[in-house]
Amino acid sequence: MLARIAQELYWLGRNLARAEFTARVVDGVFQVELQGQPDAEPGVVLGWNELLAMLGSGEEGERVQRLEALQRLTLDAKTRNSMVSSVERAREGARTVRDVISADMWEAINTTALTLRGDDPSSWLAPAGPYLACKYIKERTALIGGLGDRTMLRDEAKSFLDAGSFIETADMVLRMLHVAFPPNADAIEGGGHALALLQAVGGFQAYRRAVPAPPNARPVARFLLFERAYPDSVAACVDSLHDALESADPSPRNSEPVLRLSRLAADLDFQRRTLADSAEIGATCEAVRDELVRVDADLADRYFAGAARHRGTTVV
Amino acid sequence: MPPDRRERENARVESETLTSDDQEAYAPRAPFRDELFDADGTPRPAAGALIAGLGRLGREGLTDAGRRRDAIFLQQGITFETAGENGPSRERPFPLDLVPRIITGAEWHDLQQGLAQRIRALNHFVDDVYHGREIVREGIVPWQLIAGRSHFARAVHGIRPPGGVYCHVAGCDLVRDSDGTWKVLEDNVRTPSGISYVLENRAAMARLVPGLFGSYRVRPVDHYPQLLLAALRSVSPSADSEATVVVWTPGPLNSAYFEHAFLARQMGVELVEASDLVVRDDVVYMRTTAGLKRVHAVYRRLDDDFIDPLEFRPDSMLGVPGLVRAYRAGTVAIANALGTGVADDKAVYHYVPEMIRYYLGEEPHLENVRTYLLSDPEQLEHVLGRVGELVVKPTGESGGKGVTIGPAASDEELARLVVELRAHPERWIAQEVVHLSTVPTAGPDGRLHPRHVDLRPFAVFGERIDIVPGGLTRVALEEGSMIVNSSRGGGSKDTWVLGGEDGDEPLDATLPEPLPPALPDLRYGGWTGQAQQQQQGRAC
What we know:
The complex is a heterodimer.
Chain A: H1 3-34, H2 48-55, H3 66-73, H4 83-96, H5 103-117, H6 131-151, H7 156-180, H8 194-201, H9 204-210, H10 217-226, H11 234-248, H12 256-274, H13 281-303
Chain B: H1 3-19, H2 48-76, E1 79-83, E2 89-93, E3 96-103, H3 105-129, H4 134-137, H5 143-147, E4 169-176, E5 182-188, H6 195-208, H7 210-213, H8 224-234, E6 245-248, H9 257-267, E7 270-272, E8 277-280, E9 283-288, E10 291-294, E11 297-300, H10 323-329, E12 333-335, H11 346-349, H12 352-360, E13 367-368, E14 371-373, H13 377-385, E15 390-394, E16 404-405, H14 411-423, E17 428-432, E18 438-442, E19 448-456, E20 458-461, E21 465-467, E22 472-476, E23 490-497, H15 526-539
Helix pairs in contact in B: 1-2, 3-12
């Protein structure tokens, strides 16, 4: 398949995942922010400014109010990582590859973008806050993903699409952990917004079933990093990403990104077993993030004919 | 009263509910020919069942189907962009009118013969221009005229593509005069577009107003992509296995991108941009996730000028350097061939009937619209005298750009035009005004009004010439307007060619004589001469 098309598909997957995660997080933070901190202990902190920093949409050291942040993250087409921008970018990408993805999937993406544009975009926010818009995007991205799974041929094209969405999910979760657990914070004992964090990524129920411990900062972080059984955890995403690339590559045994991912998966598994409870989780997150950035570069070199890093993609 | 006449009368009565509140039936506009109704407002024989079907649907049904159509087209992204009043462009659903146009099997049979004949002659002409120039030597077409065209491609002189086919895809614009004869308004043998709308229109009609198809046996159109793929494969220079065919688009910002993606998807081939193609050692490859892959045939949807910065416009960002070298080496087929633009020039158009007589030894089946070449001083004087009655067009333009319709122009415009014509007569042609036929077209309220139409059938030339039944009917949605381009307020209609015992005859498929591929003429007396020179050089 064409290198350019593979790259477009990869970024289509990333943009859709980014839109979905932004919607989840905005919804989660909105609920948390309305109420105060649950207790006085230091712990996970989740607020609008953290969120903007995480998505790379805020200026350095800038403090913004709730309404302003909401505007920027949901329906502002000028903010690069607002939900609408991600959906619009996905639509542009899908338009370019509409001969590769299935017609059902294209129509679903197209209608999502057109509905969000709507006649009166502000009606999405008033009066119930971002709930309507977030719910709509969560549902539509699930629909688009489902349609893709059911209607697309499981060939290279699907593999690159999936690869994009897995790497983006892993990246978003890592970024969220990075913001919520500053790397210099000493052993975190309290809960803080850990519960909210879980709810924001949509993993609360899964956590309750998988982990007996109360949702305090540390077990939550471990869950989001290492729990293979939870599909949006970093370890699960790395596994799936590895599988997607392995099936896309004609010779996976000497493929740089596949090898790198095998190593990373093994590493995560090893840390899950050996990481002491008191060790700093922030450092692990940093290391995994760096590794994923290298995977992204390897991908471009190997499959996308060394195409220049896509516009507006690396968010620091 | 004979039974079929009675049926048509009934249909007329039923259709009146559709056309008016005040008992006034649909009135064709004299002197134009209406394709569904006689001059007295009775449905034509072939249209009876359709008119009755429209009557059953009623105005409500028609407007309702129109709303569903817009929703579906928006959802599927079958849109085109129009510049909004304040800046950003808006996407609008492609305007499809729900009343189809009907062409009987017998009429289509004649049209098909005429088109095939015309395309064969044009193909011969392109071959001749870049090789022997026989038609120039015979004094039929002046060489100055050909060489002066902006589409004359010096770079491809002497190259003969496989099978001697240049015009793989052709679309002629036809109009129907008030006496019912079909006339050719324009030939398109570069990159005619619109076929995707023909297919999408048919699919939408079957979904929105299935009742209208009723008892008709409408001939299908959806085999076009397969025809095109087969034609491209048949001209590909590939010895082993299946030829790799690609569709080359200038990019998603092009207004016809929808069509490019549509054709690639329907044919199951890759849609490439310039950055995907690369030429190594005179062979064309595309960049894939598994390295370079050889390409055998390119269906290109951009003009000659942009195709190769080394041979044509050096500032082209859309081109592939070295493509023309590969083409000259015969390792890749390009459709349509380079340099076909000389054949669809508006000044060359005038000579097409002569070409048919000269190359094929036949009388043309399809007439031209009477055309005046302004480079001829006598004709120029004649035209200047009647400039208010004629249509004046710039040569070498397309899409209705720069056309002045005499009867509709203001005195000031005409005065400016006269000055321009005197200054550069060779850049213009003048044509008699044609009375475009009309077809009933639904207004926003579901009432039918006569609107002017033209027709662009699409032909595919590979091992033989295939013409898809019907083609794109474009309709001017403004009352009285004759400008049908969708960029300027035109819409389209589904075109029904009726199947019948007389309509299914195979085409008269005489091919051009298969000519062996030729290398460019060499100076100094061809190959032998050059070999001698080299030997002389060595002897020194």
